[in-house]
């Protein structure tokens, strides 16, 4: 698939020459900083050196004083606390953090993760009943709870206090709880609203430590879990998240908890090489697999393990679950594409809405994301669970899937989510109307260009500018992620040096040069179709990211292709 290249521009007219002079950096590095909103030496210092000292005061968050005071009271009085989490990576890391924090004070603590299929997302009546059954004095919800209006009242009626830690979009009203911590609350003036659910829980830990008169360094032992939550939940890696992510990666490399260590050893990932991408593609899916296939308890057990033997047992169990998830995932993707080929005309389809009563609810969100990548249209995958049609939605830039689904609320029993991802339950007999209406809404909001995939380019680069000094500066832009993606460069008029070939499963491998520059190893995953075009000895344009290869102690730079444009003449 070829992309339309769109060159990024700074939001404001920033004088990059002053950045070049103050920081003694190349013009292209200064441009990359400007695109990321870096306007001054101080901005650059915070960006390149995201110190833990830059974290915001937790008490700037609405209700933090009440929440931290209540949790500190529970610790002082040795009350029984139930940590109530969500079944995804963010929810399970958040649960593990709060649970471990309280256990270290000797509290009688339990956790509750709702079953994905039997109970669904968020605080539910069964969870409140469980809290009552075990005699909990306090529930701390993490990564969920902002819409639990009825459940909060139920807990209050049973004499159970509730602290909510969430980061999702706030509804029309806020639950009646001791504290509702959510930086997205309209009445919350916290400086950064992009925290993960585990990140909000981390701020509660910080606030509680302050109430107890204890050092903030105690909270730092949870940074490995916070980093995993930030990377996996696809929140913006800027501001406070950048600080937490950087510190969390350092902890994983040096001294992770035994559960994280066991998982890394099992999947043979070198701790020294860990980065955001490896969390997203190696750690996250395995932690997520337990919740996707039904019961997320195995993931929590891994992360709260107290010895390596126990942790290894849970890591291998997760790997077994993940292998089943992969098989189910692949089969569902094949069936979804068959349904599209048979039933859909892409020229008349703005939103892909698919239904099969046998699809596994735990993988349809992953498949929906892949369909978005493949067809560049919003995609909604629906399945039947206990007689109800439930599903996951994913979207593209320019189409707020949550708002669109909200406009169909008369067809729904339940829904929730945000701009790019949402979950829903359809009312009986409403599938056809829902499909029609979502297609109509997408056509109203999107232009013809919206369905053409675009690639956001940071800057054009001459390969002569690429050397180890340039790479050393570029590597300091890590950790990468949303709002600070790995820079994508374009080099025009490059030529092949030597003979290009195909390696692995359809990967294009070649060496390229440009205007007497050095020669660079280049790899294009799944780009085998370009082989004939690059063999004809004519120049072409490439979009790519820079990577470092370290083989037998020899460090070289490699171009990983994102796209190729072949001149038409």
Describe the fold and architecture.
With 569 residues, the chain is α/β, with parallel strands linked by helices. The protein folds into 3 domains: 4-9 and 455-565, OB fold (Dihydrolipoamide Acetyltransferase, E2P), CATH 2.40.50; 53-248, inorganic pyrophosphatase (n-terminal core) (Alpha-Beta Complex); 347-451, Diaminopimelate Epimerase, Chain A, domain 1, CATH 3.10.310. It is 40% helix and 19% strand. The protein has helices at residues 16-23, 27-35, 41-48, 64-76, 89-103, 125-133, 149-157, 197-211, 223-232, 239-254, 258-266, 276-292, 297-303, 308-343, 364-375, 401-406, 431-445, 468-475, 531-534; strands spanning 4-7, 81-84, 109-112, 138-142, 161-165, 179-181, 352-355, 379-385, 388-394, 412-417, 421-426, 454-457, 459-460, 489-496, 501-503, 507-513, 520-524, 540-551, 554-565. A 5-stranded parallel β-sheet has the order 3-2-4-5-6, sandwiched between helices. The longest helix is centred in the middle third of the chain and has 36 residues, at 308-343. It is globular and about 75 Å long. The relative contact order is 0.09.
């Amino acid at each position: 698939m070829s992309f339309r290249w769109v060159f990024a521009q700074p939001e404001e007219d920033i004088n990059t020459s002053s950045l070049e002079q103050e920081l003694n950096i190349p013009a292209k590095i200064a441009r990359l900083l400007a695109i990321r909103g870096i306007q001054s030496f101080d901005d650059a210092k915070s960006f390149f050196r995201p110190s833990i000292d830059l974290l915001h005061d937790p008490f700037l968050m609405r209700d933090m004083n009440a929440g931290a005071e209540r949790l500190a009271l529970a610790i002082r009085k040795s009350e029984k606390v139930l940590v109530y989490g969500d079944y995804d990576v963010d929810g399970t890391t958040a649960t593990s953090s709060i649970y471990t924090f309280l256990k270290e004070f000797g509290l009688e603590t339990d956790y509750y993760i709702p079953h994905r299929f039997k109970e669904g997302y968020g605080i539910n009546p069964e969870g409140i009943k469980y809290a009552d059954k075990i005699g909990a004095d306090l529930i701390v919800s993490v990564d969920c709870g902002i819409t639990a209006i009825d459940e909060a009242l139920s807990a209050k009626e049973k004499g159970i206090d509730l602290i909510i830690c969430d980061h999702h979009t706030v509804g029309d009203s806020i639950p009646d709880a001791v504290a509702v911590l959510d930086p997205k609350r309209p009445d919350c003036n916290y400086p950064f609203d992009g925290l993960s659910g585990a990140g909000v829980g981390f701020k509660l830990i910080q606030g509680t430590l302050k109430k107890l008169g204890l050092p903030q360094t105690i909270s730092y032992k949870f940074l490995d879990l916070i980093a995993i939550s930030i990377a996996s939940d696809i929140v913006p890696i800027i501001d406070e998240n950048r600080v937490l992510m950087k510190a969390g990666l350092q902890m994983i490399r040096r001294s992770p908890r035994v559960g994280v260590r066991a998982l890394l050893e099992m999947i043979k990932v070198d701790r020294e090489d860990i980065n955001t991408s490896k969390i997203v593609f190696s750690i996250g899916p395995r932690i997520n697999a337990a919740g996707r296939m039904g019961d997320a308890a195995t993931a929590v057990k891994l992360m709260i393990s107290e010895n390596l033997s126990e942790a290894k047992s849970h890591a291998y169990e997760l790997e077994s679950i993940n292998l089943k998830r992969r098989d189910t995932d692949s089969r569902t993707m094949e069936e979804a594409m068959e349904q599209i080929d048979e039933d859909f005309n892409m020229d008349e389809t703005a939103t892909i809405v698919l239904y099969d009563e046998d699809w596994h609810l735990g993988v349809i969100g992953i498949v929906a994301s892949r369909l978005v990548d493949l067809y560049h249209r919003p995609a909604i995958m629906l399945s039947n669970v206990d007689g109800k049609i439930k599903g996951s939605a994913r979207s593209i830039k320019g189409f707020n899937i949550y708002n669109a689904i909200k406009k169909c609320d008369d067809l729904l029993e339940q829904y929730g989510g945000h701009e790019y991802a949402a979950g829903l339950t359809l009312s009986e007999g409403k599938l056809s109307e829902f499909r029609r209406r979502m297609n109509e809404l997408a056509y109203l909001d999107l232009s013809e260009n919206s369905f053409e995939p675009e690639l956001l380019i940071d800057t054009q680069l001459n390969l002569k500018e690429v050397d180890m000094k340039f790479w050393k500066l570029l590597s300091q832009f890590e950790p990468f992620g949303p709002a600070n993606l790995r820079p994508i460069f374009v080099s025009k008029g490059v030529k092949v040096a030597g003979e290009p070939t195909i390696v692995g499963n359809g990967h294009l491998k070649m060496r390229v040069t440009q205007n007497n520059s050095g020669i660079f190893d280049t790899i294009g995953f799944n780009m085998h179709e370009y082989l004939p075009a690059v063999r004809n000895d004519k120049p072409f344009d490439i979009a790519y990211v820079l990577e470092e290869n370290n083989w037998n102690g020899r460090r070289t730079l490699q171009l990983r292709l994102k796209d190729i444009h072949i001149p038409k003449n």
